[in-house]
Design brief:
five-stranded mixed sheet; 2 helices; Tachylectin-2, Chain A; binds beta-L-arabinofuranose; five-stranded antiparallel sheet; 37% strand
C-alpha cells in the first residue's frame, strides 16, 4: 500500500476488518517462509527492528540484525518465538541487513538460507546449519559462490532435488547484475539500470542446489514469466511483473511460482510444468496490505493450504515494523487461486 494512503487509516477499525491477526506480538516479524518439519509448523521470518535508519527506496530502514524461528504445533495453536537463531555478528562475510530468509531440511540437518549485505555493499546469500529446526544456526564462512541479490526461497521437488529461487529489485540490487557482474555506478539510485517500460521486465533467478545444500550446482539462470500470449511480461506492467519475494510450491503436479510486484503491492502467481519454467501469469493471490512491502510463503498443513504473509497493522503503518499473519488459500477446480482481500470491506 502506498505510504500516502497509510496516513488516513483508522487502525482500530482496520484491525477489526483484518481477516487475521499477528501470530506473535512480542517482536515484529516479516517475510515468513513456512514449512512443516516432523509434523510441526516452523516459520522463518525476518526480525524487524527500528534501528533509526530513515526510509528510502533502497530499503536502508530494513536494518535487521538477526533471525528468530517461530514454531506452532498446529495451525490454530499459539505461535512460539524460539529466540535468536542466528545473529549478523556471527556471520563472517555479512555486515548488515539480514533480510528475508528461508530454510529446509535434509537428512536431519536444517539449513537456513539468508541474504545480507556484505562489507563491499553487495547483497549475497549465505547458508547456516543446525541439528534443530529452531537453531542456533552456524553460518558458513563465505556466502554461496555466484549468489547475489535477495529473498532466497528453497523448494524441494518430488525427486529430492532442491532449487533456490531469488532476486529483488531496487534495494535488492537485481537490476545491477544485468551485465553479469555488479554495476556499482549511481550507488544511491534504486531505479538506475531498471529496463524501460516497453522492455521485458527483470526476471527472478533459479539455481539447483548441490547435494550438501551449501552451494549452487549450476550457474544461476533466469526464470521466464509469460503473459497469456506467451510473451515475457514488460517492465511497465507493474501490477504483474516480478519485483521480489519468490516462492515455489507444487499443487496437483503443477509448479506455482509466486512473488511480490513491489511498488504495486500485490502477491501474484504464475504456473509452469518444470521447476525452471517457463511460467504463465495466472493472477493475484493477495491484494495490497498495510505497509509498502508484501511478502509471503505458501505451505500445506494437514491437507489444507495456507498463505503466510505480513502487514504493518500492529505498528500502525510503520513500513519496516511488520507482523506475520496466516490465511487459508482456496483453489478453484481449474487450479487457479481465489485472491485474498486482507481486510473485509
Ligand atoms: O524485509 C526486507 C525486504 O522487504 C525483503 O527482502 C523484501 O522481500 C521485502 O519484504
Amino acid at each position: 500500500m502506498p505510504e500516502e494512503n497509510i496516513k488516513h487509516i483508522d487502525f482500530e477499525d482496520l484491525n477489526k476488518k483484518a481477516i487475521s491477526q499477528p501470530i506473535v506480538s512480542n517482536i515484529y516479524t516479516a517475510d515468513p517462509s513456512a514449512h512443516v518439519f516432523n509434523g510441526k509448523i516452523y516459520i522463518y521470518p525476518s526480525h524487524d527492528i527500528d534501528a533509526g535508519e530513515a526510509f528510502d527506496d533502497l530499503g536502508s530502514h530494513f536494518a535487521m540484525e538477526d533471525y528468530h524461528v517461530i514454531s506452532m504445533d498446529s495451525i490454530n495453536s499459539k505461535a512460539v518465538d524460539n529466540g535468536v537463531a542466528l545473529h549478523v555478528d556471527n556471520v563472517a562475510w555479512a555486515e548488515k541487513q539480514m533480510w528475508a530468509p528461508d530454510a529446509h531440511e535434509k537428512d536431519g540437518t536444517y539449513y537456513l538460507f539468508f541474504p545480507a549485505k556484505a562489507y563491499d555493499g553487495i547483497f549475497r546469500i549465505g547458508v547456516a546449519t543446525s541439528s534443530s529446526p529452531t537453531g542456533p544456526f552456524k553460518a558458513q564462512p563465505k556466502a554461496i559462490k555466484e549468489s547475489f541479490s535477495i529473498d532466497p526461497a528453497v523448494f524441494k521437488d518430488d525427486d529430492g532435488s532442491y532449487y533456490m529461487y531469488f532476486g529483488g529489485l531496487w534495494g535488492g540490487q537485481l537490476q545491477r547484475w544485468r551485465s553479469g557482474s555488479f554495476n556499482a555506478n549511481e550507488p544511491d539510485s534504486p531505479t538506475a539500470f531498471i529496463p524501460k517500460d516497453n522492455e521485458p521486465a527483470l526476471l527472478p533467478i533459479v539455481a539447483k542446489m548441490s547435494n550438501d545444500l551449501l552451494e549452487f550446482d549450476e550457474t544461476p539462470k533466469q526464470l521466464e514469466i509469460l503473459d497469456e500470449k506467451g510473451s515475457l511480461l514488460l517492465a511497465g506492467d507493474i501490477e504483474r511483473r516480478f519485483f521480489e519475494a519468490s516462492w515455489m510450491h507444487k499443487y496437483n503436479g503443477k509448479y506455482y511460482f509466486s512473488y511480490s510486484t513491489g511498488d504495486s503491492h500485490f502477491i501474484c502467481y504464475a504456473i509452469g510444468d518444470s521447476p525452471y519454467g517457463p511460467f504463465t501469469y495466472k493472477g493475484k493471490i493477495l491484494e495490497p496490505v498495510v505497509g509498502w512491502t508484501s511478502h509471503h510463503s505458501i505451505c500445506e498443513v494437514e491437507g489444507k493450504w495456507y498463505l503466510f504473509y505480513h502487514d504493518s497493522s500492529l505498528s500502525k503503518g510503520v513500513t519496516h515494523l511488520r507482523s506475520v499473519k496466516i490465511a487459508e488459500i482456496t483453489y478453484k477446480e481449474d487450479g487457479t487461486i481465489v485472491p485474498i482481500k486482507p481486510y473485509i470491506e
